């Protein structure tokens, strides 16, 4: 399984247990893989952040997905801090979807802000990307 892609330790344990392997054996194998650095949650989180940021997703969405996988919040925070320039990425994503011209009216700004919010960018990042004081419900 590890030959195809990286897995988080929890994800690998779940997959092996679901396939009928003994949980104690799975735990021992996972520990051995971690010791040999073949299984590394920090590396997994960094690669996950890099891949999803490359797909135009923002830090809030990426963090939410990683937390749902049961990964350590501290690992997630460090990887997001080392990630790309989130404001620059929000600008690129906005421009790719809506073109170079900034929206002229409030409805256009709100539409673009909702799009960026769905993609997982924070309110501050959206305001910077749009260069405006758009009012968002969630400023996280």
What is the count of DSSP helices, taking H or I runs of 4+ residues?
8
Cα shape: elongated
| Residue runs with pLDDT of under 50 for 5 or more positions | none
Which secondary-structure class do the elements indicate? mainly alpha
Helix content: 55-70%
- Overall tally of domains: 2
Record field, number of beta strands: 0
Order of helices and strands: HHHHHHHH
What's the main sheet like? none
Binned strand content: under 5%
Mean pLDDT: 90
Computed CA radius of gyration, to the nearest angstrom: 19 Å
Distance between the termini: 36 Å
Layout of secondary structure:
Elements: H1 9-18, H2 23-35, H3 41-54, H4 59-68, H5 73-81, H6 86-98, H7 106-119, H8 123-130
Question: Can you describe what's shown?
Answer:
With 140 residues, this protein is mainly alpha-helical. It is built from eight helices and no strands. Helix 1 packs antiparallel against helix 2. The chain is elongated and about 60 Å long.
Distinctive features:
0% strand, 140 residues, elongated, Arc Repressor Mutant, subunit A
Short structural description:
With 140 residues, this protein is mostly helical. It contains eight helices and no strands.
């Amino acid at each position: 399984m590890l030959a195809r892609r990286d897995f988080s330790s929890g994800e690998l344990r779940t997959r092996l247990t679901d396939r009928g392997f003994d949980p104690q054996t799975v735990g021992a194998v996972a520990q051995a893989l971690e010791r040999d650095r073949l299984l590394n949650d920090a590396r997994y989180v960094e690669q996950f952040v890099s891949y999803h940021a490359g797909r135009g997703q923002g830090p809030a969405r990426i963090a939410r997905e990683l937390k749902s996988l049961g990964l350590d919040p501290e690992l997630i925070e460090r990887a997001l801090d080392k990630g790309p320039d989130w404001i620059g990425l929000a600008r690129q994503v906005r421009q790719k979807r809506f073109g170079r011209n900034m929206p002229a009216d409030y409805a256009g700004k709100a539409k673009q802000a909702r799009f960026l919010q769905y993609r997982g960018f924070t309110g501050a990042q959206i305001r910077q990307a749009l260069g405006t004081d758009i009012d968002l419900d969630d400023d996280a």
